[in-house]
């Protein structure tokens, strides 16, 4: 808008003022024709109301300067009216749909936001907590035990006699300088969370319902599916009248809770020295619904747990400290599962070593 | 283990199901078939995984017995008849170690022809991809595959004077069949003649007495060895053979004559004759431990108590239990008092069966695990959480919210790291058989593992990393290991919110301190402060920068140390950028309760802000200023905090050796709006205290 000349006022009577202000109103109307963009609104505002070169100010100053005293009040009122008119137009332009003064404040909302990254939960810890929570809802308390165990708790009391071939399946990392001690007192890295079963029973009479999450170690060379460090969840339930069908029902229920209600379980005879009868448990593949996929090696089933009825021989060891574990009167079941394998399947992790690498690129995927 | 279905069906001709169904039925009974391979007209090959307790099923006849039991079919007896022999004298056999060798049979075959195997043996070896050696050696291997008992064939003419079962002599040498000369241990049981050791009993035969193409006369050995002794010899000499695998799991004491006969039949097919009778030396104590174990009591009621409900309402019946146990080779004798109680005599090939629970397992297994119902046990009792569960959850939640990711590192560290990071000097525990030198010691601190993880990130060009780990640390000695929970955290690179709208802030000591402060604020501690007080080793941890690290103290107890990694340590690890790391002793922190938030009355009156700009000499740490103001005990002082710290190495803005501090105070009364003179007076008291602390008003 170019700087226009200041109109001259012919006289100071009402008629002259009427005419002069009508002309200004018309000019205002004309200049308010295209208030469609933020830029236009702003330039309209500057043209009329600008503090230094605004037209309203310039005209009012010029007219008031030369006006007789008795006319000044009238002229002032008429300018106020005009100003209100201008402001009203500005307001309606800015509140009007899709246009107006606030558009001038628009920013590029497609730029990325300022994110305050949260830390990522470890997929293994998360899986472990979720599984433990399933059993807590079923009335299981949480138990833990030492990671360095004695031969007695890790093997002997679990019915792995000294020199038994079953010990071979659990290559053990041992603490140095144990040779002088009696075998049962020798220290080793626990190869499973099962010792906590014995420790728990030694400390409390039945009934027992306990779920035991923990870190375990074996003398295994590392590859994509093996790690010398891994995690297990162990469970133990002992009471009067605990049966094999209770074991089946408990694990079936827990697997449905964890993987979804469509999951089915099936049980196969197996061998663990500390349970009898022993079973391996397969679940129908929760990833393909049993149709067959890479995770279930196209079989529709995934082997997930080892379990069984507590071997009376184990109760025999416990009875040395807690006579209430009389295998003729009570019974129980125990189960165990590898957390790493479950987490690997659940989160599509192909190399178990990534869990223990601290690689931020890996961990941040789980934030 | 590989099994031919054709061979199985020879022993149980009545099997009517397909190989595939047979595989499924066996697997559901715990005789796991992992793979089924079609061999066309030769049936199928099963790839089997037999659990370590079932050595009796690690052969065709044993699996055939399982199949016969499952389907209630007849198991064919093994054909053991031999052609009539020629008379001869009794071959001398002497067992000098009756505890290690429970039974030994020897059969002399003369005029044999050693030649390549042919016919059925060669055919089955080909299908099983088993190496053919010669008819005599193949005969022993074939019989092991058939019925599981390992045997051995000696060249009789290499033997002098008869067989002696004795311990090896000190330093005695034996060249075993693999051609290696071994020095024997006096704990080893050997099969010897009058001159020397011939074989490492139950593990591997000897080179010198082996059957060769020139062999004319053979001695067939079938023996029963003590499982523990075989296992020890096998481990001692690092020889794991098919024979040792079977003997150390417990062989069938009664199978010896059968195995000997089967081997001899095969060898004699190519010519020759038996001379004399088979010599059979039996140690009665060993027989009592194995073949003639006393019978055990079994009741169907006990089976029901342990096993529970079945889908079939009839459940486990006495009839079903009898059929299953009899099929597996048990002999049942009904007790007079009860219809459902028995005395059970155990088969000699099932040394894994020893008590009633073993019989219950056999019944459940053959009956079918999946025919039991899924029931849930009733339970009355509370769920108990670990005492520190809530504390650990709060720590984890806080750290995650602060942007640190959880990591899990190795339990083991290198010896050098253990020595450098152990909170108590020398208190760490080495492994006896570590996986590697870098993993030789149980970690006494989580800090080295944290550094390893951060280093890995930097080496992979990840510039920003913020990690924490909650885990066990190990102290004490190899006699007594102490385990404690600990928390480590490490940050490197830049931190916090950043992007095109605000620049990244490089991590500083104060980022790490902020983390520690947030964590400690979750606990109901009365007094928290930070200092550079020496630790238990008499020094601040040597792995921390002495000028940029701190000890955290809660109610008088050291909670841990944190700060910038010592530049020497950083150099040693070839780190490209500064790392901030710390460790908190959770066993101590967990003694503190969690803070329980309580609402307090919010003031309705206007707060007033007052700023104070002061210059302090570097000798005055902020803590002293903070204490000086706190000591004033101004009840209206809502908050008092440093807002800006300024130093100028040029000395223009702030004199060298000094720093300028902009302090912000918020004053608010719970009783009413503070009057101007009250504000003036309070501000004056604060200024006086700041002066007294060594400050001067900034001009
Ligand atoms: Zn699948």
Automatic annotation (TrEMBL), chain A:
<dbReference type="GO" id="GO:0004826">
    <property type="term" value="F:phenylalanine-tRNA ligase activity"/>
</dbReference>
<dbReference type="InterPro" id="IPR010978">
    <property type="entry name" value="tRNA-bd_arm"/>
</dbReference>
<dbReference type="GO" id="GO:0000049">
    <property type="term" value="F:tRNA binding"/>
</dbReference>
<keyword id="KW-0648">Protein biosynthesis</keyword>
<dbReference type="InterPro" id="IPR004188">
    <property type="entry name" value="Phe-tRNA_ligase_II_N"/>
</dbReference>
<protein>
    <recommendedName>
        <fullName>Phenylalanine--tRNA ligase alpha subunit</fullName>
        <ecNumber>6.1.1.20</ecNumber>
    </recommendedName>
</protein>
<dbReference type="InterPro" id="IPR022911">
    <property type="entry name" value="Phe_tRNA_ligase_alpha1_bac"/>
</dbReference>
<dbReference type="GO" id="GO:0006432">
    <property type="term" value="P:phenylalanyl-tRNA aminoacylation"/>
</dbReference>
<keyword id="KW-0067">ATP-binding</keyword>
<dbReference type="GO" id="GO:0005737">
    <property type="term" value="C:cytoplasm"/>
</dbReference>
<dbReference type="Pfam" id="PF02912">
    <property type="entry name" value="Phe_tRNA-synt_N"/>
</dbReference>
<keyword id="KW-0030">Aminoacyl-tRNA synthetase</keyword>
<dbReference type="InterPro" id="IPR004529">
    <property type="entry name" value="Phe-tRNA-synth_IIc_asu"/>
</dbReference>
<dbReference type="InterPro" id="IPR045864">
    <property type="entry name" value="aa-tRNA-synth_II/BPL/LPL"/>
</dbReference>
<keyword id="KW-0460">Magnesium</keyword>
<comment type="similarity">
    <text>Belongs to the class-II aminoacyl-tRNA synthetase family. Phe-tRNA synthetase alpha subunit type 1 subfamily.</text>
</comment>
<dbReference type="InterPro" id="IPR006195">
    <property type="entry name" value="aa-tRNA-synth_II"/>
</dbReference>
<dbReference type="Pfam" id="PF01409">
    <property type="entry name" value="tRNA-synt_2d"/>
</dbReference>
<comment type="subunit">
    <text>Tetramer of two alpha and two beta subunits.</text>
</comment>
<keyword id="KW-0436">Ligase</keyword>
<keyword id="KW-0963">Cytoplasm</keyword>
<feature type="domain" description="Aminoacyl-transfer RNA synthetases class-II family profile">
    <location>
        <begin position="134"/>
        <end position="345"/>
    </location>
</feature>
TrEMBL record, chain B:
<dbReference type="Pfam" id="PF03483">
    <property type="entry name" value="B3_4"/>
</dbReference>
<dbReference type="Pfam" id="PF03484">
    <property type="entry name" value="B5"/>
</dbReference>
<dbReference type="GO" id="GO:0003723">
    <property type="term" value="F:RNA binding"/>
</dbReference>
<comment type="subunit">
    <text>Tetramer of two alpha and two beta subunits.</text>
</comment>
<feature type="binding site">
    <location>
        <position position="358"/>
    </location>
    <ligand>
        <name>Mg(2+)</name>
    </ligand>
</feature>
<protein>
    <recommendedName>
        <fullName>Phenylalanine--tRNA ligase beta subunit</fullName>
        <ecNumber>6.1.1.20</ecNumber>
    </recommendedName>
</protein>
<dbReference type="Pfam" id="PF17759">
    <property type="entry name" value="tRNA_synthFbeta"/>
</dbReference>
<keyword id="KW-0067">ATP-binding</keyword>
<feature type="binding site">
    <location>
        <position position="362"/>
    </location>
    <ligand>
        <name>Mg(2+)</name>
    </ligand>
</feature>
<keyword id="KW-0547">Nucleotide-binding</keyword>
<feature type="domain" description="B5">
    <location>
        <begin position="291"/>
        <end position="374"/>
    </location>
</feature>
<dbReference type="InterPro" id="IPR009061">
    <property type="entry name" value="DNA-bd_dom_put_sf"/>
</dbReference>
<dbReference type="GO" id="GO:0004826">
    <property type="term" value="F:phenylalanine-tRNA ligase activity"/>
</dbReference>
<dbReference type="GO" id="GO:0005524">
    <property type="term" value="F:ATP binding"/>
</dbReference>
<keyword id="KW-0963">Cytoplasm</keyword>
<keyword id="KW-0030">Aminoacyl-tRNA synthetase</keyword>
<dbReference type="InterPro" id="IPR020825">
    <property type="entry name" value="Phe-tRNA_synthase-like_B3/B4"/>
</dbReference>
<dbReference type="GO" id="GO:0009328">
    <property type="term" value="C:phenylalanine-tRNA ligase complex"/>
</dbReference>
<dbReference type="InterPro" id="IPR036690">
    <property type="entry name" value="Fdx_antiC-bd_sf"/>
</dbReference>
<dbReference type="GO" id="GO:0000287">
    <property type="term" value="F:magnesium ion binding"/>
</dbReference>
<dbReference type="InterPro" id="IPR045864">
    <property type="entry name" value="aa-tRNA-synth_II/BPL/LPL"/>
</dbReference>
<dbReference type="InterPro" id="IPR045060">
    <property type="entry name" value="Phe-tRNA-ligase_IIc_bsu"/>
</dbReference>
């Amino acid at each position: 808008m170019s700087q226009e000349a200041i109109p001259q006022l012919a006289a100071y009577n009402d008629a002259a003022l009427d005419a002069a202000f009508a002309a200004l109103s018309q000019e205002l109307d004309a200049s308010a024709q295209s208030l469609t963009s933020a830029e236009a609104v702003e330039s309209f505002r500057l043209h009329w109301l600008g503090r230094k070169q605004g037209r309203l100010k310039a005209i009012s100053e010029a007219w008031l300067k030369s006006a007789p005293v008795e006319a000044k009040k009238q002229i002032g009122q008429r300018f106020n009216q005009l100003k209100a008119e201008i402001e009203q137009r500005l307001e309606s332009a800015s509140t009007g749909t899709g246009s107006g003064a606030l558009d001038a404040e628009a920013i590029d909302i497609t730029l990325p936001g300022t994110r305050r990254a949260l830390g990522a939960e470890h997929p293994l810890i998360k899986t472990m907590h979720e599984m433990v929570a399933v059993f807590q809802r079923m009335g299981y308390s949480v138990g833990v035990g030492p990671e360095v165990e004695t031969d007695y708790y890790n093997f002997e009391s679990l019915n792995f006699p000294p020199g038994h071939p079953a010990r071979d399946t659990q290559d053990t990392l041992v603490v140095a300088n144990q040779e002088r001690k009696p075998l049962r007192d020798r220290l080793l890295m626990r190869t499973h969370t099962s010792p906590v079963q014995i420790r728990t029973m030694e400390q409390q009479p039945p009934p027992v319902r306990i779920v035991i999450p923990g870190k375990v170690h074996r003398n295994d060379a590392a590859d994509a599916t093996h790690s010398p460090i891994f995690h297990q969840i162990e469970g133990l339930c002992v009471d009067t009248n605990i049966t094999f069908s209770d074991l089946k029902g408990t694990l079936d229920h827990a697997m449905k809770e964890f993987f979804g209600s469509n999951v089915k379980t099936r049980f196969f005879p197996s061998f663990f020295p500390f349970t009898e009868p022993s079973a391996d448990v397969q679940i129908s593949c929760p990833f393909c619904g049993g149709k067959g996929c890479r995770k279930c090696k196209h079989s529709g089933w995934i082997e997930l747990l080892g379990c069984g009825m507590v071997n009376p021989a184990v109760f025999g060891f416990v009875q040395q400290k807690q006579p209430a574990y009389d295998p003729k009167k009570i019974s129980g079941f125990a189960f165990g599962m590898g957390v790493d394998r479950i987490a690997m399947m659940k989160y599509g992790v192909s190399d178990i070593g990534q869990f223990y690498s601290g690689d931020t690129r890996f961990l941040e995927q789980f934030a | 283990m590989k099994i031919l279905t054709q061979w199985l069906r020879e022993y149980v001709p009545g099997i009517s199901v397909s190989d595939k169904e047979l595989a499924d039925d066996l697997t559901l009974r715990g005789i796991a078939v992992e793979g089924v391979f079609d061999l066309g007209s030769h049936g199928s090959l099963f790839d089997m995984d037999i659990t370590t307790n079932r050595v009796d099923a690690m052969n065709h006849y044993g699996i055939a017995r399982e199949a016969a039991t499952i389907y209630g079919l007849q198991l064919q007896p093994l054909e053991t008849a031999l052609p009539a022999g020629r008379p001869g004298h009794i071959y001398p056999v002497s067992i000098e170690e009756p505890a290690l060798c429970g039974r030994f049979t020897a059969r002399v075959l003369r005029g044999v022809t050693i030649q390549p195997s042919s016919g059925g043996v060669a055919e089955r070896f080909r299908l099983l991809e088993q190496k053919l050696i010669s008819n005599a050696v193949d005969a022993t291997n074939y019989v092991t595959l058939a019925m599981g008992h390992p045997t051995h064939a000696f060249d009789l003419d290499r033997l002098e004077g008869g067989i002696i079962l004795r311990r090896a002599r000190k330093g005695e040498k034996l060249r075993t069949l693999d051609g290696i000369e071994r020095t024997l241990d006096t704990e080893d049981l050997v099969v010897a003649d009058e001159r020397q050791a011939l074989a490492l009993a139950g593990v591997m035969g000897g080179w010198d007495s082996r059957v060769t193409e020139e062999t004319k006369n053979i001695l067939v050995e079938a023996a029963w060895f003590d499982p523990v002794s075989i296992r020890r010899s096998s481990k001692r000499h690092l020889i794991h053979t098919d024979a040792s695998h079977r003997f150390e799991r417990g062989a069938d004491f009664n199978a010896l004559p059968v195995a000997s006969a089967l081997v001899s039949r095969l060898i004699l097919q190519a010519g020759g004759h038996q001379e004399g009778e088979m010599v059979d030396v039996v140690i009665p104590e060993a027989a009592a431990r194995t073949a003639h174990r006393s019978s055990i009591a079994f009741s169907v009621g006990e089976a029901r108590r342990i096993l529970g409900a079945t889908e079939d309402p009839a459940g486990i019946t006495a009839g079903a239990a009898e059929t299953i146990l009899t099929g597996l080779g048990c002999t049942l004798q009904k007790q007079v008092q009860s219809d459902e109680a028995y005395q059970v005599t155990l088969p000699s090939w099932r040394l894994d069966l020893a008590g009633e629970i073993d019989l219950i397992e056999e019944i459940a297994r053959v009956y079918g695990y999946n025919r039991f119902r899924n029931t849930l046990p009733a339970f009355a009792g509370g769920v108990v959480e670990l005492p520190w569960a809530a504390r650990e959850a709060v720590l984890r939640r806080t750290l995650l919210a602060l942007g640190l990711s959880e990591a899990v590192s190795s339990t083991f560290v290198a010896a050098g790291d253990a020595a450098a990071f152990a909170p108590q000097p020398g208190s760490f525990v080495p492994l006896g058989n570590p996986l590697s030198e870098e993993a030789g010691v149980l970690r006494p601190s989580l800090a080295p593992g944290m550094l390893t993880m951060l280093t890995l990130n930097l080496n992979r060009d990840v510039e920003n990393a913020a990690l924490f780990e909650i885990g066990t640390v190990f102290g004490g000695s190899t006699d007594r290991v102490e385990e404690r929970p600990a928390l480590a955290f490490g940050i490197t690179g830049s931190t916090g919110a950043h992007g095109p709208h605000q620049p990244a802030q490089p991590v500083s000591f104060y980022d790490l301190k902020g983390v520690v402060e947030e964590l400690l604020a979750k606990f109901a501690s009365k007094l928290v402060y930070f200092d550079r007080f020496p630790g238990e080793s008499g020094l601040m941890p040597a792995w921390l920068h002495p000028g940029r690290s701190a000890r955290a103290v809660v109610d008088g107890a050291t909670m841990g140390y944190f700060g910038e990694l010592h530049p020497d340590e950083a150099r040693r690890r070839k780190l490209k950028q500064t790392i901030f790391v710390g460790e908190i002793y959770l066993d101590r922190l967990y003694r503190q309760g969690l803070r329980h938030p309580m609402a307090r009355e919010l003031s309705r009156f206007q707060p007033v802000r007052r700023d104070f700009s002061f210059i302090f000499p570097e000798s005055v740490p902020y803590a002293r200023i903070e204490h000086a103001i706190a000591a004033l005990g101004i009840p209206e002082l809502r908050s008092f905090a440093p807002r800006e710290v300024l130093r100028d190495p040029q000395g223009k803005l702030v004199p060298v050796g000094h720093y300028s501090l902009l302090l912000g105070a918020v004053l608010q009364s719970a009783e009413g709006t503070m009057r101007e003179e009250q504000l003036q007076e309070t501000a004056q008291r604060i200024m006086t205290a700041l002066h007294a602390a060594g400050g001067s008003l900034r001009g």
